[in-house]
Amino acid sequence: MKKKNTIAPRKGAEIPPKDWQIGNLTVIPCPFCGQMPRFNHVPDSLVQPELKKGFWALSCANGRCGGFPSASGDSKKDAAFQWNQRSSGGWVSPKRDLPDAEICVLIRTGSEEWPLALGWYDGEHWLELSSDRITASVMGWMHMEDAAGILDTIAFTKKGGAK
Fold it and tell me: In this structure, are residues 35 and 88 in contact, taking their beta carbons and an 8 Å threshold?
């Protein structure tokens, strides 16, 4: 018998009970901020013609979350399963893992003025390339190879490549 996922949400997080539990599946909180996700149904009439049908999507309900996690599926339960199993799109929560010391990474901060920075983790503190300490909360980090791949994909799509 499979054990149910029983990760509890962050204290104080609002949990819509009908959305948090779907059958025997328990939706887990955002790995970056601890808030519960928001379900959205995208109807058939709003999807691109090649998709042919609508879908369910989940995204972090915290508008200030720096991780931007999301997942989707054909049904609400499928979307919830994908949310629980998802990759974070290259972003890694510093609560789950830290980069090797002095490896340059792309850093997502909680700062509205400077949401992204290049820098590293020295074993104690996050530092910018200038060696200045990052004082804003670090929401996530990404290896430079992953960041380059994402930027290449965006540039290729904007030039009219594969969509």
Answer: no
List, in sequence order, every residue forming a beta bridge with 22; answer none if it has no partner.
Answer: 25
Q: Determine whether 26 is exposed, middle or buried from the number of CB atoms within 10 Å of its CB (0-12, 13-18, 19+).
A: middle
How remote is the C-alpha of 1 from its chain's centroid?
A: 30
What own/partner pairs with CB < 8 Å and gap ≥ 24 does 119-124 have? 121/94
A 10 A CB-CB count for 94 gives: 17
The highest-confidence range among 38-42, 120-124, 152-156, by mean pLDDT, is: 120-124
- Please indicate, yes or no, whether the overall pTM of this predicted structure exceeds 0.85: no
Residue 45, Cβ density class (10 Å: 0-12 exposed, 13-18 middle, ≥19 buried): exposed
Instruction: Tell me if 114 sits within 8 A of 136, measured CB to CB.
Output: yes
